[in-house]
Write a structure and sequence with these properties.
single chain; alpha/beta; elongated; binds zinc ion
Length: 260
């Protein structure tokens, strides 16, 4: 009984132990572990990227290195130290976001749902956008559209995981971690015209089909972009496309393919 009580007391005491502030950071830094950061120039300006040997953990904008360090310490409860130069993989990944499926990103501490959402965003090619509803359906949680929005809003590594490629179903450019203006800049840079998307949205057009292939797409799909104007057929809904005898594109998957 005494042993049990001692154990309980010892376990409780463990919770009171605090390492001196900065110790773990200094030790880890000496071992080449811990969190380092680099600054990188992007189309939306300078960003700070924190990373561990396991991958990137945070992408942030900040007014100064000191402001970034303070923000990181507050958010993650860990110290971050400047690296002499950004690792090559990081510069490559930022130059073409989402291009590498095996992007070294450290998503430790995220829920399975959040990881599924963030990984799905990596499937959206540059120059294309998808909707929150699409992400929800693709990860097998079609009713979780709002939760998808929240998970993307908490993306720890924007740009690297291209959450900016997710917009509303009506083509409206929704909010973004770095603000809607940055989102538009990023999308334009990748070849998406946000105004054209909004125009289609206002007209109620959700999909574009080709009357030669009888396949329909999201408007930004690379296959849809190849449809010449005389063969382009607008659709307002999946149902309208299916009723007209069109099949969903296998590249952009505007709907689940129906079993033959
Ligand atoms: Zn398509």
């Amino acid at each position: 009984m005494t042993a049990g009580r001692d154990l309980q007391r010892d376990l409780r005491a463990l919770g009171d132990v605090r390492a001196p502030t900065g110790l773990s950071g200094a030790v880890l830094a000496r071992l080449g572990l811990g969190v380092a950061y680099a600054t990188l120039d992007t189309v939306i300006g300078r960003v700070f990227v924190a990373y561990t040997p396991r991958g990137a953990v945070a992408v942030r904008r900040a007014s100064s290195p000191r402001a970034f360090e303070a923000d990181f310490q507050k958010t993650f409860g860990r110290a971050v130290r400047p690296a002499p130069a950004p690792p090559a993989w990081l510069a490559r990944a930022l130059a073409s976001p989402g291009a590498r499926r095996k992007l070294p990103v450290d998503l430790g501490g995220r829920s399975a749902f959040e990881r599924a959402v963030l990984k799905k965003a990596l499937d959206i090619p540059a120059g294309e956008v998808r909707s929150y509803a699409w992400v929800a359906r693709e990860i097998g949680r079609p009713a979780a559209v709002r939760a998808v929005g929240s998970a993307l809003g908490r993306n720890p590594v924007p740009l690297l995981i291209p959450c900016h490629r997710v917009v509303r179903s009506d083509g409206t450019i929704s909010d973004f971690i770095f603000g809607p203006t940055a989102k538009r800049v990023l999308l334009r840079h990748e070849g998406v015209d946000p105004d054209a998307l909004a125009r289609l949205g206002r007209e109620g057009v959700r999909y574009l089909g080709s009357d030669t292939t009888r396949i329909y797409c999201f408007p930004t799909c690379r296959a849809a972009r190849r449809i010449s104007a005389p063969h382009r057929v607008p659709f307002r809904s999946e149902r309208q496309a299916a009723t007209a005898g069109y099949r969903p594109c296998r590249l952009c998957r505007p709907a689940l393919a129906r079993p033959a």
